[in-house]
Amino acid sequence: MKTLGIIPSRYASTRFPGKPLIDINGKTMIQCVYEQAKKASSLSQVIVATDDKRIFEHVNSFGGNVIMTANSHESGTDRCAEVLKKIDEKFDVVINIQGDEPFINPEQINQLSVCFEDDKTDIATLIKKINTKEELFNPNRPKVEIDENGFAKMFSRNAIPKLPNTEKKDWLATHNFYKHIGIYGYRSNILKKISQLPQSPLEIEERLEQLRWLENNCAIKVAITEYEAIAIDTPEDLKKITFK
């Protein structure tokens, strides 16, 4: 199985413009992500996908692979699909690596790649067990409900599944809940398909693009990770991180 890692990277950001080029321990964030992704043994190649000349030139400057993409994409998934169309080399699987997680663990990428050993897998993603009530009921932390075969049944910003006969303060003690870790893998043919799908009503309501895929009968395999995702979304996030 031949797997391509793509790192979508936009300069524009409502909460933190220019964040791919911020300094973290003497390197830009996009360089940190790129170098971590290159350590993943499951990836045959890593490419940065950007719509900004500054990012393009910077990735070139440190010897990284980069492709310029359209500035009209609404998601990293769509940007990945454009890269797949542009390159001549053929890949079985594409891993969409978040460009704002400078400390991503390469084992998370490898773990995601393993999901495609199951022939039923169209798309794969990671989840992590929730251990606190604050996280469970935080709408900014998307949740995942899974079936007995390790496939996603539902994604939501609310705690799922609901336990109507149990008080909310006791939910964690009676059931395992999982949050979504935002890294995706797609079979190449599925990536081409989902990039052409219109937004679905449930996706619009919850603001979660993966609901569009579920509503169009894509099988989303999940793997449980022990590693926490550390995303830099705001200048305040940058101040909180522990430098390594």
Q: Would you tell me the structural class of the helices and strands? A: alpha/beta
Q: What order do the SSEs take from the amino end to the carboxyl end, as H and E? A: EEEHEHEHEHEHEEHEHHHEH
**What's the story with the biggest beta sheet?**
9 strands, mixed
Distance between the termini: 33 Å
Radius of gyration: 18 Å
Task: Supply the number of helical segments.
Answer: 10
CATH architecture: Alpha-Beta Complex
CATH C-level category = Alpha Beta
Concise account of the structure shown:
With 244 residues, the protein is of the alpha/beta class.
List keywords for this structure.
Spore Coat Polysaccharide Biosynthesis Protein SpsA, Chain A, two-stranded antiparallel ribbon, 244 residues, 9-stranded mixed beta sheet, globular, alpha/beta
Overview of this protein structure:
This protein is of the alpha/beta class. It has one domain: Alpha-Beta Complex (Spore Coat Polysaccharide Biosynthesis Protein SpsA, Chain A). Helix content is 30%, strand content 23%. It contains ten helices and eleven strands. The strands form two sheets. Strands 1, 4, 5, 6, 7, 8, 9, 10 and 11 form a nine-stranded mixed sheet that branches. A hairpin with a 2-residue loop joins strand 2 and strand 3. The protein is globular.
